[in-house]
């Protein structure tokens, strides 16, 4: 965990990762590049979790968050960033099995199943997550995490965080349950139920969860608010505004240029068509993109308003199309295509969202996303060195 005395911290560091199913390969590619730059600066053992005070992730972003912050051997992160995509390539085809249209029986069975239940049964996802994470709980993550989900019984968001878990046994859920809950996308995967218990108080809390994208597909604003809330606990806290934050926000891609839907066509749609139309999921595409973009509008304005644009880096591709824009077409060909999109995105110019058009516009003079990440790695490394020089060995003060 990024440590050091509160009063010696120059900036609070935040990493946020969007939801997007198989498109988690895109931020996985970007994180691998960032970690390689940190290793060039600070040695081969450097890991993402060493540099961020808070890592937030929704749905597939929640899985990535857990992979890079859950303790593995010798108390180090279970996954290096370079291993994220290897995990996805190995397991996504089994989480989202694809049926050839030539396999008539399988295709019909799958279609009927979609009408009466989720598209995928989620059994393999639950198995592999439970095998990897076992009984590890939220309070054991190597830096602070924030993972949103949505409770359909209470009809309200649920925010799972390391700090809350440390303060309340009832909030200290198993990481496996949190990951399954945040990725339980409606129509794709079944909702997830689990309980937490406080034996000493004789209390039980229940959770009836679906995908965190319902609440916040882009959890950047939640992460900033969470960091602010936690700072209020400290007497000698620094003033927290955009000048005292480093925020990296990673999208999983959008398909704005494809222009999938139109009012002329959708005006005749019924309830089922809004859920599923021509292999696409209109209502899900709409609410996830809207959720992601409105957060980016807000956070971009926050940093631009006091001329601190370099403290906020959002990397997003708005030009996905076809299978690459899906959340579940986990063919080997499509997964490779997403990895290439991630690599190409690194070479693209830094861009920021235009609040009028919703499109990402290139920013003159800031180079490529690769250049920006290299600079960001230097800022993270410098911040960590400042903290290391001022560690109070007697108190082990933590800011979040």
UniProtKB/TrEMBL annotation:
Active site (catalytic residues): 59 (nucleophile), 211 (proton acceptor)
Gene3D superfamilies with a match to the protein in the record: Cytosolic phospholipase A2 catalytic domain
Pfam families referenced in this protein's UniProt entry, alphabetically: Patatin (PF01734)
GXSXG, short sequence motif: residues: 57-61
EC number: 3.1.1.-
Sequence motif: DGA/G, positions: 211-213
Annotated GO MF terms: monoacylglycerol lipase activity; phospholipase activity
Keywords linked to the UniProt accession: Hydrolase, Lipid degradation, Lipid metabolism, Plant defense
A Gene Ontology BP annotation from the UniProt entry: lipid catabolic process
Locus of motif GXGXXG: 19-24
Domain PNPLA: 15-224
SUPFAM superfamilies found in the cross-reference section: FabD/lysophospholipase-like
InterPro entries registered for this protein in UniProt: Acyl_Trfase/lysoPLipase (IPR016035), PNPLA_dom (IPR002641)
Extent of the signal sequence: none
Family annotation (PANTHER family): PATATIN, XYLOSE ISOMERASE
Cited function: Lipolytic acyl hydrolase (LAH).
Comment, domains: The nitrogen atoms of the two glycine residues in the GGXR motif define the oxyanion hole, and stabilize the oxyanion that forms during the nucleophilic attack by the catalytic serine during substrate cleavage.
Family (UniProt): Belongs to the patatin family.
Protein name: Patatin
Species name: Acer saccharum
